[in-house]
Amino acid sequence: MESELIKERKVLTKEEKAVRTEMLKQSRAAFNGSSFLCDSCDVWLSPSTGRFSCMVCVDYDVCLECMIKGVHPTHALARLTDAETLIPSDNGTTVKVGDVFESKPRFVTTSNVVPTNTSNC
After folding, report:
1. Which residue, 87, 82, 79, 39, is CA-closest to 62?
2. What is the DSSP string of 61-118?
3. pTM for this model (two decimals)
4. Smallest Cα–Cα separation from 104: which of 87, 118, 119?
5. What are the domain boundaries of the chain?
């Protein structure tokens, strides 16, 4: 199975590698040294590509282009611009994304929420 996945990967040109390296740097700079890939198209997430984090799934982020395409339509997505983005915390206050472990937000939950199917994550 793994060898099949490797065969499907596109060989990047020198220019494409340079662009991806720059995008990786932007992602790390925006999120306090952490970097994030779009779980749909594998582009590095930064303020220029957008970062939209699923509020239901544990670890699912997409770029603006994929969000517009509707690649994850059944769950709410939160826009995270950089490590300074404010998110609600469990105790009713707000914290910066960069202050949360690995820049992954933990959203306020309520006891009467019915879990949804997360099999498409």
Report:
1. 39
2. EE-HHHHHHTSSTTS-EEE--STT-EEE-TTS-EEEGGGSGGG-------TTPPP---
3. 0.58
4. 87
5. 2-103
Please state, as a whole number, how many other Cβ atoms lie within 10 Å of the Cβ of residue 20.
14
Supply 11's token pair: 């060989």
Q: Which of 20, 81, 74 is nearest to 51 (CA)?
A: 81
Instruction: For domain 2-103, give its CATH number from 1.10.150.120, 3.40.190.290, 3.30.60.90, 3.40.50.300.
Output: 3.30.60.90
- pLDDT tens for residues 44-74? 888 777 888 888 887 899 999 999 999 999 9
* CA atoms lying within 13 Å on the CB side of residue 82: 8
Which residues, including other chains, have CB under 8 Å from residue 116's CB and lie 6 or more apart?
56, 74, 75
Q: Residue type at 14?
A: K
pLDDT for 29: 77
Query: Binning pLDDT at 50, 70 and 90, where does residue 97 land?
Result: low
CA end-to-end distance (rounded Å), the chain: 20
Q: Measure CA 5 to chain center.
A: 22
